[in-house]
Structure formats: structure tokens, C-alpha cells
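Table 4 source record.
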Amino acid sequence: MQQMEVKDNGLIIEAESLSFSYEHQESLNLTLNDINFKVEKGEFIALLGANGSGKSTLARQINALLPLQRGKLLVNGFDAGIETNMRDIRRACGMVFQNPDNQFVSSLVEEDIAFGLQNYDYPQAEISSRVAQVLEMVGLPGFEQRNPGFLSGGQKQRAAIAGVLAVDPDILILDEATSMLDSEGRKEVLETVQRLHREHHKTVVMITHYVEEAILADRVCLLSAGRIIADGSPREILTQPALLDQTQLTAPFAVRLFFELANKGVNLPEIPLTTNEIVRQLCQSK
């Protein structure tokens, strides 16, 4: 496989003509089909699509959990086509999965976080301070001696994020990380992710089928049948109900309400993304 030329161009992820099949490399039944995808350092990207669209497979390719089959992929300057780069790519990409219970390896939060640090030969004398630091980052200070099994859903997922953050990855990948949480847990996790992006300048790749979550991103890549069919700002992508219908997704509530009001003769100046936006427009139109 030809090695992709490494360039210092501000990009942290570069995929060119990326295709993947779970059957075998030559199969025509592709889960990813000719993906071209670039992420700048510090961006917050939402990979949005229905179940089976290929978004989780793309995340696993980026994190080197699935082998490169066709195309080219650079992650943090490392060519994913070179086997010896796998460890560096996985360290650069912190992956948070759907079920936090599957990520815990210990009955104590501090031991779970320390596990990753020990695997990467972090100095033993500094591990305790690093554990405290990442727990502070996710809003769980003082949770070192807690048992992950007795935490709330949102706390579990934030503890899982802390374990990922411990080795200081450049990229944080969240694969449907809120789908098993209640509304309060989802809020806790999303606020944590936004803070990590804003204050700690983490590049975030969030895989989701919730359109409301995609509103938080800088950019939305809409996937369907293994292809990226649209790529733009949340306002550009999520205000198009017909486009979202192609992927079996429903536009945000504020967008749907905008069009319902328009059908009844109530015309607002622009399509809102959030409830606050539509409330503000309605108040201003009186």
C-alpha cells in the first residue's frame, strides 16, 4: 500500500477514497464506500446518520480498530496503512464507546484510569496527580475511591472519558456515547465534551444519530449507506428536512415547527435550530 505523504497543513485526520467491507477486502458489499473526509486540529465534528450508515465503522477506522483495506488515511500525521503506526494512532485517538461498563477494568475509578497510564509507561510517581487532574476535567473531582458500578449513567460515562483523557489524546472519539443515558446523563456528558473542546482544545469526533446533539458541533458530516452525502455547518445540514429524510432522520423540533408555522401563514425571518431561537423570533415578530 502506498504511503500517504505527511504534510503539516493543520489537518489532524485525512481520509482519501476510504472503503471498507466486513466480508473481505474485494467484496462489493461495502460498509464504507469512497469516503473523503478531513478534520482540522481543534474541530468538533459530528458524524450523523441512522443505524447502519457506516459512521461507527468510520470511527473504528480512524482509531485503527479496523484495518485499512482501500484508500488512504492519515491520523495525527501517522499513516494508517503502516502496521507499526497502530499504537501511535490509538494513543492519539481516545475512544469512548456506547456502554461505559465495557470500558472499566477495575472496581475503583483511580485504578481504572491508572491502567491506561501504566500501559503507556507513565511515571509511577505522577499517576495519582494525573488521575486527579483528569477527574477534575470531567467534573468528577474526588471520585478516585468510588466504584464505577455504583455511579449514575452520566457519571460512568464521564469516568470512562477520564480514563481516555489520562494519556492526553489529541482526538476524542465518542461512538454513540450518550445513547444509553437518560436526559440528565446525556446533558452531563455533552457539557463535558463541549468543555473539553472549548477549554482544552481537543479535536472531537462525535458519532450520533441524535440530530439535537449534532447542533453542538462545528461541522456535520451526514452519512447514508456508507457514503458522506452532505458536509457543512449544523445550520446548513440540519435545516434541510428533505435531506435528513433521505437518511431516515428527523429534523430538529425547531426546524419542523418553523415549516409548520410557515404552512399556517406565520413567516419567521430564518430557520431556527433550537427552541430558544424560535422563541426569540416569535417574540420579536409580535
